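Entry: Prephenate dehydrogenase
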Amino acid sequence: MPSPCISRISIIGLGLIGASLLQALKRSPLAGEQQIVFKGFDPGFSSQDILRIKELGLDSFETDKTSLYDTDLIILAAPVHTNISLLEEIGRLAPQSVLVSDVSSTKEAIAQRASSLGIDFVGMHPIAGREQQGYQASHETLLEDKTLVLCATAEMMERQRVKNLIELLISARCKVLAMTPHEHDRTVASISHLPQLLSTALINHCRDDIEKAGPGFATLTRLAGSPWHIWQDIIETNSANIAAELRAFCDEIALLADDVQHNRTEKLKLRFDSANDLYTVLNRRKTQ
């Protein structure tokens, strides 16, 4: 009977989030107590990249898929469609006892595919990131004190290996929050995917005046530096929720434009007061 505890973790995709999660887990007190061995693979790695990722904490870079998947926990950290496509291979090569997770920005599509293949799956989404990509931009503190959404039912949360995963994440100083894949995708469409597309739309809209822009505009459009190859899969696997948020925001912008055009100062003041209060709440959460 396999041990319910996690002693081996394989990470497929060693970019910004995969490498940051590797470092955070590797340096967590609980991983040291459990003497966890970290294996990994990334198809784009050169021999120099392999040497560097081992310096960051990877114990073994595995090119043999059978060895890579012979583990207790597989974390898929590639783009969304790649993660989904890997599930069939994992279903063939990995032991039945393996727990599979991912760090994709959308959850319903991959959870449904894992369920159809009979794979023991619980999705993760660390709410952290940078505009830069690749393990070179990773850091052991990137996920520290950040929310990490775990897409698991109450029943799944009580299983021993999932409990051990949660303990490891907490030991790595992540703030674990549970929700369903459906709840997750609706929520991130609002607080993550909508801001990305607004930043992209804003900087394109103001293209003729970019040379005159100051630091406030640069702050507001920071997300415009995010690459399309990362966002293509996210938008394709959460299109309905994102489109709904964009339409709702368009309605809000139309109301705002009308208030500005007709100089409804009291309504505009209420908007600013509400935004000030919400900004205070947001920043208070960051320091907790």
